[in-house]
Amino acid sequence: MGSIENLTQNYPMNPLEPEEFRRQGHLMIDFLADYYGKVENYPVRSQVSPGYLGEILPESAPYNPESLETILQDVQTKIIPGITHWQSPNFFAYFPCNVSTAGILGEMLSTGFNVVGFSWIASPAATELEIIVTDWFGKMLQLPKSFLFSGGGGGVLQGTTCEAILCTLVAARDKNLRQHGMDNIGKLVVYCSDQTHAAMQKAAKIAGINPKNFRAIETRKSSNFQLCPKRLESAILYDVQNGLIPLYLCATVGTTSSTAVDPLTSLTEVAKKYEVWVHVDAAFAGSACICPEFRQYLDGVENADSFSLNAHKWFLTTLDCCCLWVKDPSALIKSLSTNPEYLRNNASETNKVVDYKDWQIMLSRRFRALKLWFVLRSYGVGQLREFIRGHVGMAKYFEGLVVMDKRFEVVVPRLFSMVCFRIKPSAIIGKNDENEINRKLLESVNESGRIYVSHTVLGGVYVIRFAIGATLTDINRVSEAWKVVQDHAGALIVDAQLASCEANKF
């Protein structure tokens, strides 16, 4: 056995010395503050080529330590060029993943504590704060009391919507099979629309649902790409007549492609006739429903079994933070609980505490509630509402700019803070493919690095999505973005006209 002196000599490193942590922490905050101060100057979409980083970093890790200053210099010169800047005020692609001072500081505190809150006893505050903040948030959304801990339901902070859908699907599957027999898993059917996020199909695959029993029901432009209750019921009746078992419906408030809102009241009425579990996915648009003028889009949620939204999208809370509420927590627990001897404890044995390990896929879990708590307390309901309204107002302004330019059209009605638009077919002379022209417009705009937008296809039509939600975006950025779109569109239209004229010569 070695002496204390020998052990000290052999292990000289202290990777968490408080004063050195303080010094480096200040450096890191300064670095990030500087980054946010100049993020607008970077090309929004990274301009690097695949494999760029492997060409400029060493092939193996350093043997000797390097200073934080040296590492941060490499971040500046090597990593930042390969980042697509989601926090840029000129980021209008996908959906936002916005952040805030409160969200970052809450994340920092959570990371600093680094507790693993799989059960109540593992860190009581982590569990109890999560119970409190999910009930707070649920009340802000005016969710039915049955979704709150105070009403027999409850909320849990998952990583992403993918996890929330998978967990509820597994709970619905097992509940159904306990009734119909485990041998019937091949008969279970899952329903959604063709606008539902791909997370639903992925979850069905993982949960063991027969791919032939996945129903993505077609939507139509005439109904703004909502899931039609009559078409849903027709699909269910057809399956029942063929000996299959309707299991699960995913309805959406704010689809990814166009922010369409499915008619929850009518859909849940159909689903309940056939004992189908209804999950409402409001990943992006759910946050807006803290505003009274948007709460109508959740009408009918009282008849659903589960509901989720991503606070890391439009609620100033850093990735990852998906809020899931369920009416029947026992359904999750029966499917997802494990109770090995090494995790047994007196508190859990009393059944008076929540062990969140039984509400999710993973065993380990981070103290996510801290950052959501910071956001709720730092800004309050009033400021959070105004923040969301500001983005909706900017989207309305952008929509007006599109309408005023006769070369463009809004493809579907705007509901929240995203506008779907394209160059009109009538603006394109000759036999040019209208979808191809709009695709070229998207690529041209994004390659400029000045703004970043994304696309979708709705009813066969290629559409540009302009999603407002980055924390630093303001009305001036929106105006400048529209000028970028107009300039690139003008050049493309002229090129298309010239090409058409050349073709007509022959």
Automatic annotation (TrEMBL):
Modification N6-(pyridoxal phosphate)lysine occurs at: K313
Cofactor: pyridoxal 5'-phosphate
GO cellular component: cytoplasm
InterPro entries cross-referenced by the UniProt entry: Aromatic_deC (IPR010977), PyrdxlP-dep_de-COase (IPR002129), PyrdxlP-dep_Trfase (IPR015424), PyrdxlP-dep_Trfase_major (IPR015421), PyrdxlP-dep_Trfase_small (IPR015422), Pyridoxal-P_BS (IPR021115)
GO biological process: amino acid metabolic process; carboxylic acid metabolic process
One annotated GO molecular function: L-tryptophan decarboxylase activity
Protein family per UniProt: Belongs to the group II decarboxylase family.
Xref: PANTHER family: GROUP II PYRIDOXAL-5-PHOSPHATE DECARBOXYLASE, TYROSINE DECARBOXYLASE
Protein name (Swiss-Prot/TrEMBL): Tyrosine decarboxylase
UniProt source species: Heracleum sosnowskyi
